[in-house]
Amino acid sequence: MCSIIISCSGCFEREKAEKISLEERQVTSNVTIDVQPLRIGVSALISPQGTMIYYEEILDYVSERTGLPVSLVQRDSYLEINELLESRYIDVAFVGPGQYIEGREKFGLELLVAPVVDGEPYYYSYIIVPSNSEVASIAELKGKRFAFTDPLSTTGKYYPTYVLLLMNKTPDTFFSSYVYTHSHEASIEAVARNLVDGASVEGLVWDYLSQTKPETTSKTKIILKSPPYGITPLVVHPEMSLELKEELKTIFLTMHKDPKGEEILDKLDIDMFIQVDDELYDSVFWMRTAVESGNVNRSVAL
Prior knowledge:
Layout: E1 38-42, H1 48-66, E2 70-74, H2 78-87, E3 92-94, H3 97-107, E4 110-116, E5 122-123, E6 125-130, E7 145-148, H4 154-166, H5 171-174, E8 177-180, H6 184-192, E9 198-202, H7 203-212, H8 214-217, E10 220-225, E11 229-230, E12 234-236, H9 242-253, H10 259-267, E13 272-274, H11 282-293
Parallel strand pairs: 1-2, 1-3, 7-8, 7-9
Antiparallel strand pairs: 3-12, 4-12, 4-13, 5-11, 6-9, 6-10
């Protein structure tokens, strides 16, 4: 599957180009009305091109159902998307669990829905190394080069950092060097090309690429899989009108019941969207708290 419901850009060199697309899907009408577009943000995980391809039909579907022009907004980092949400430049976004928790604490970011993939609303972190590496455990990555995804990524930062915390280590004291790729695909590529000795990536992305780009994932191997964590949700700004929140929620919750919506979900390997609450992200919250405080929380599953 794809975490394509949550994904896009970057590697070791950042593009200078603007990451926001303000292309608006106009609603046909004989009357010219200045309608504010519904801007939907997507956090950076796979590639800008991939995100446009995989989200295009969802955006068109939402536009068709709401009667509003819809535009896609992308940024290189999770923090940038959160800043756009806080400022209300965008009101809706697909975000990572850690990113959601950060926004919830800072400005009351709210859950709308979350996807179900392969029958469950969970995803996993994979610690990967080159396929020809002799490294068989995270402990053996000591003194090696490592790739994280984003400082707010659950699978790409919090999980591996928490594992190190249980070993009384930090990334600074454990690895010889580390980088942030701002893309799970970029991290996988970096490992496959031996640019780094290991990386922590989202399992859904690795699994998806193993089907679509096996020539890349075959050059990597998984040495550790995390326990399940609440999957990346769709969130909204708390000050969005209740009417629009409910309309959007209904659109996503019933998408799998509509032939056109079901077809779009099938292309994304998403079973359906469901309503979720904060309890789904409790383990991420406690893991994040432990990582940021430096104090081990033994109640967090590993």
